[in-house]
Amino acid sequence: MYEAVSSKPFFVRERPIMTPNDxxxxxxxxxxxxxxxxxxVGLTAYAQESLGxxxxxxxxxxxxxxxxxxxxxxxxxxxxxxxxxxPSSGEISSVNxxxxxxxxxxxxxxxxxxxxxxxxxxxxxxxxxLMDAAAYDAFVESQQ
Amino acid sequence: xxxxxxxxTHIKLGAKMAPFGxxxxxxxYEGIIAEHRYTRTAATLFDTCHxxxxxxxxxxxxxxxxxxxxxxxxxxxxxxxxxxxxxxPEGGVIDDLIIYRLSPESFFLVVNASTADADFSWIxxxxxxxxxxxxxxxxxxxxxxxGPHSAKIACMLLNKTITELSYYxxxxxxxxxxxxxxxxxxxxxxxxxxxxxxxxxxxTFWNEAMxxxxxxxxxxxxxxxxxxxxxxLYGHELDENRNAAESTFTQAISTTKTFIGxxxxxxxxxxxxxxxxxxxxxxxxxxxxxxxxDKDGSLIGAVTSGSxxxxxxxxxxxxxxxxxxxxxxTAVLVGSDRYRLDGTITTIPFFKNATARKKIADYV
Lengths: 144, 364
What we know:
The structure holds 2 protein chains of 2 kinds. By secondary structure, chain A is α+β, with helices and mostly antiparallel strands.
């Protein structure tokens, strides 16, 4: 066959994003970290990779009552719009305002500065069925 | 699913692939926004081998094509190309195409991938028996080299004569001991070229252009780039049930000659819904199928394409809007059951500083 320019992608990420061990994961690709009386929720590296460049996020309003498994805010990439699902029922106690102006942080630091919202009065039992990092990695692998 | 000759190249470059027009095509490599910006500021390569190419030749070719395509053909000089539509008798658009006049009796037609086979049958069915027709799609590779640095790269790899090309003109230049066809055209709004050649040399050209700084760009960036320019995409802004005149691309439609669909196209010219640009007030995008409402809440149209516009920093949409409701600066609402977005009717192109028509001499 013909010779291609290089055998490696020219933009390979220098350090692949590892799935962190300090939180749990949903089948809809949210991560959930317990922080005292709240849970902090964000999107996984796999989710941001699938979405592509994130261009907009509609954060939930403070005090909004959310239901486990129901969409509670919308995220858009260049190509599509998707829901972010509440991993537990409860009440929105905090949202990450930094994402309003810079939604692309979800692409660059999904497990760090780009957390999305926090839920208080959550149901601890809602978290029982969530996956740990190893189970989530295996789940992502099985989706491909 | 079909693959272009660049399939292995795309995989090695790490592209995300998806079906388009019957082909497995690259949607993005590094990212849509990065590729979009690189096209506006430097130079990118697009694999457009999926598109269809036909050669129509003979003493009757010009007269035949005048009845088949919406734009004027006989006034086209050899070395020039033109954008036009293939219409059905009802004035709907079977496809949009570019027609190149190679010589007085020889024409090269470039059409969309998904419609290429049907186009070829339709065109063949309306040609005189003596007019020869060849579908060259399988043996023709096509690369789009687009962006303000494209002329410099093309000059280094090809021939200085390309600096003499005006917008929508073309020439044949030698490359690796054989000619290729290069036109000063494209789908991004930037200074750029479309190249037609055989597969082995196309792969070589791609690699050599990358060594000179061009980066690959996928169909995702191709779509956001064309949307910022207000260019139509077949299947979204154009289809068989939508009258060609409603697209507002009047330069693609002859006002004088008779062609298939011309009666219906002229009758519809000032009625119905017309293609309209809408600027959204924020980053959230309207999507194809969303409704357009006036400030009183009456339904006045429907969105055909919409996205965040990377160069502009806000979302834009193309929509068919009732002709009496599409005055520039009119406030509208765009949305579905789930959301309503504030927008304003805007003239297209949305992005007004693109380089496609600038003097090449200033860019080499």
